Amino acid sequence: MNTSDVIVIGAGAIGSATAYYLARRGLKVTVLEKDGCVGVGGSSRNGGGVRQSGRHPAELPLAMYGVKHMWPNLSEELGVDVEYYQKGNLRLGKTEAHMGILRGLTESCVAGGLDMRLIDFKEAKEICPYLSEEIVGAGWCPTDGHANPMLVTLAYYRAARQNGVRYVSGAEVTELRKVRGRVSEVVTANGDVYSAGRVAVTAGYDSRKILSSVGLDVPMSPLLMECIVTEEAPHMFWQMLGTAMADFYGHQSKHGSFVFGGTHGYEAYAAYDGGARGASVAVPSTCRAIIGYFPVLRTLKVVRSWAGWLDECVDHIPVMDNPEETPGLTVGCGFSGHGFGISPVVGTLLADLVVGDAPLLDVSKFKYDRFKAKI
Amino acid sequence: MSVDRTRDFGGYVPAADDELVICRCEEVTKGEIRRAVRDGMFNVHEVRRFLRCGMGLCQGQTCARLVRAVVARELGVPPSALAEATGRAPARPTEMYVFANEEGLA
Prior knowledge:
The complex is a heterodimer. Chain A is built from 8 helices and 18 strands. Chain A is α/β, with parallel strands linked by helices. Chain A folds into 2 domains: 3-47 and 150-219 and 316-369, 3-Layer(bba) Sandwich (FAD/NAD(P)-binding domain), CATH 3.50.50; 86-144 and 221-313, 2-Layer Sandwich (D-Amino Acid Oxidase, Chain A, domain 2), CATH 3.30.9. In chain A, strands 1, 2, 8, 9, 10, 11, 17 and 18 form an 8-stranded mixed beta sheet that branches. Chain A has a 4-stranded mixed beta sheet with strand order 5-6-4-13. In chain A, strands 14-15-12-16 form a 4-stranded antiparallel beta sheet, covered by helices on one side. Chain A is globular and about 65 Å long. Chain A starts with a strand and ends in a 20-residue tail after the last helix. The mean pLDDT of chain A is 96. Chain B is of the alpha+beta class. Chain B has one domain (21-100): Arc Repressor Mutant, subunit A. In chain B, strands 2-3 form a two-stranded antiparallel sheet. The N and C termini of chain B lie far apart (51 Å). The A-B interface holds A 36-40, 44, 150-151, 154, 157-158, 161, 166-171, 188, 190, 192, 229-232, 255, 278, 283-284, 287-288, 290-291, 297-306 and B 1-6, 39-43, 45-46, 49-50, 52, 55-57, 59, 83, 88-90, 93-97, 99-102. Strand 16 of chain A pairs antiparallel with strand 4 (94-95) of chain B, so a sheet runs across the interface.
């Protein structure tokens, strides 16, 4: 009963995408989720960006592949409108120092083959007419976009179930066990034991505790991110927005509400106590940032705010690997807040790693053994 | 408590009141909620994220209990067995400029 080909730990966007692509290859998959609810971690708590611009050079090929080959068909493939809009990303700057940051980001992305360029205020205003006059210019990537993270996660979950994946929620994994040298048993908090030929850990920051049971440790820390959602407004623009200073980011959703994230400086010191409570300074700080770039939105009402945890890896890129130390185990964690936008590609790559196929794209930059001492 | 989500509901049986609007802000009907439960959304959080019921201007202050009752009935459990949707700040819709000036400086 508790035996399958693969166990995936964590039912978020990446775990569910991995489970879905494995099931499509004919494997019998069980997904174990700690929470009683699917997708309560970073998967449903992010700004929804499907960006290539501003990506780490190691991640850029994944983001570009996803935008070219996976995101445009995702709603059709999963049978749910995941609200993917590919209308570009504007990364805004107000000062020459900001423009210097944007120039560096643009050059790095262009070197990786991305269609991205710096534009002046006039051109930015033609793309999005609601910008503040204080804006000097922007980094512009016309093929970026955004999607609805909650729908993507639940659409993968739904499609995985339709393809025969077994989901067990409220199943907190406490231990991985090796049997004759291979990771092949998973123990949950209530004592249930699940066994499989292979195990994949895609549990965000909680991956750390799970991996420690077989002696693995990924150097990452939990980082709080906080967002606001506004009331519904008539449609104004479809671009994904960001700034050189990363003081806010967001977009207007299909629904008409705006989803904006922001930073206030205390995120890395928030108490990691199982919940995800926003700081009292978060919403005011984000609102000031937004009004500074979009004065027209100042009277729009905030209807809710929420917070969630990122698994921030020391070098800001994930681990996607079958570590040598642990045959039978595939690790996918440390996505550092940019996992959602590449989740379809990551699900495909992790499925490749699980079954032992040559990965669709190069994953050598994401190996578990890359963390060396500084001296 | 762990819950195995493998479940066969049998075929969907339309009900006479499926067109009834449960969430007025987002205009979500009873039939849509019933179908979402059969699609695997097994609690009010998942139903909310899938259909937007309770995500509108009133943030579920009107429909939260009704949504929970419909989900519970579809699952065949008492409503009290399901956790309520999480309430999120602010309690009432509040303009951005009010938040932005939280120290009353301007």
